[in-house]
From TrEMBL:
Listed Polar residues bias regions: 301-326
Name of the molecule in the record: DUF6534 domain-containing protein
Keyword Transmembrane helix (UniProt): yes
InterPro entries, alphabetized: DUF6534
Organism, scientific name: Rhizopogon vinicolor AM-OR11-026
DUF6534 domain: residues covered: 175-262
Keywords: Membrane, Transmembrane, Transmembrane helix
Region Disordered, annotated ranges: 300-326
Annotated TM spans: 20-44, 56-77, 97-115, 127-149, 169-191, 203-233, 239-260
UniProt keyword annotation of Membrane present: yes
Length: 326
């Protein structure tokens, strides 16, 4: 690495759409990473008795996402700070940014396999959904590793541009997998709605909303990134704005699902009528009538009916929560 600018012809690429886009993507990714750190704190405080497998998965997600952010920062620092004015350095790709893509693929694979496992539980152990979701998730990791391998063997920008088809394929595969996961989970949850218990149906509605958010944002980001990478010309890295957000976004999705368990389990309240004061006359012979305020709950019959109805649907309700790990 040189400590002073190298005298040579300046690069012809637009730095705003190349390394400026990478810098913007790294900064935007740190916004989601900050939310992840907060989610980690909430998870550790509220769910200390979770299964070891869940804790290991959360630790792996956070560690991989942290490595992704660190490598992205090191990479853009080398380009814009350490080698400022070194145009020869700008005309090559370098290892830190490429390795960041590998850790991003690890995070997305873990997240998609976790959600696929929940789909398998929701479907009652049916293997038709994991049969194509698991290979799709693993294929993203394999394609990313092959892309990085090809890029490391030839660090020229021209070679990286020739590999854009692999980047497009990875993002398109990720978008399709995320959208399928969201649609399948919503369909399976909607099928379990009982129709005779407002409490159970309300809980399932919350689960459906959570399932949509589980695949919506990652799918949208991956789809837009795939389109931008597919139409990009040489040295145009505008898709990096979204590419470097994928890892923390996947991590945030899974942590949000785990931390939403209290919202789903305790966010549904029994329907109760309003309590209000009624002046009741209490008179004795020879005494004047005095109104005595009594708290009268108009909910007795309604609460009894609701409780009995909920007892009948307790098994269906708990099955829906357990199937999603809640």
């Amino acid at each position: 690495m040189s400590s002073s600018p190298v005298a040579c012809a300046p690069v012809t690429s637009n730095l705003d759409t190349s390394y400026g886009a990478i810098l913007g993507g790294v900064c935007l990714g740190f916004m989601f990473y900050g939310a992840n750190c907060l989610q980690i704190f909430v998870y550790l405080v509220n769910y200390p008795k979770d299964r070891i497998a869940l804790k290991v998965m959360v630790a792996a997600l956070w560690a991989s996402d942290t490595a992704h952010q660190i490598l992205g920062t090191i990479g853009i620092w080398q380009y814009l700070i350490t080698n400022y004015g070194n145009y020869v350095f700008l005309e090559e790709t370098h290892v830190p940014l490429l390795l960041a893509l590998v850790f991003s693929a690890i995070v997305s694979t873990i997240a998609q396999l976790f959600l696929t496992h929940k789909i398998w539980q929701l479907s009652g152990g049916t293997w038709i959904f994991p049969a194509f979701l698991v290979p799709a998730a693993l294929s993203q990791l394999a394609l990313t590793c092959y892309y990085v391998y090809r890029a490391v063997t030839d660090l020229t920008v021209t070679n990286l541009s020739n590999l854009d088809s692999y980047a497009t394929a990875v993002n398109a595969l990720a978008a399709g997998t995320d959208i399928i996961i969201a649609v399948v989970m919503c369909a399976l949850l909607a099928r379990q709605r009982t129709g005779f218990s407002k409490r159970t149906d309300a809980m399932l509605v919350r689960l459906i909303i959570l399932s949509v958010n589980s695949g919506l944002w990652t799918g949208v980001f991956a789809l837009i990134s795939a389109v931008m990478a597919g139409v990009a010309v040489q040295n145009d890295l505008q898709y990096a704005w979204l590419q470097f957000c994928m890892s923390p976004l996947y991590c945030n999705t899974i942590l949000g699902c785990l931390n939403a368990r209290d919202f789903i389990n305790n966010g549904v309240h029994k329907n109760r009528g309003p309590a209000f004061n009624l002046p009741i006359s209490n008179s004795r012979e020879g005494d004047s009538q005095r109104p005595v305020p009594l708290n009268v709950a108009v909910e007795t019959k309604q609460a009894t009916d609701t409780d009995s109805l909920e007892d009948q649907t307790l098994q269906a309700s708990s099955r829906g929560k357990q199937s999603l790990g809640f």
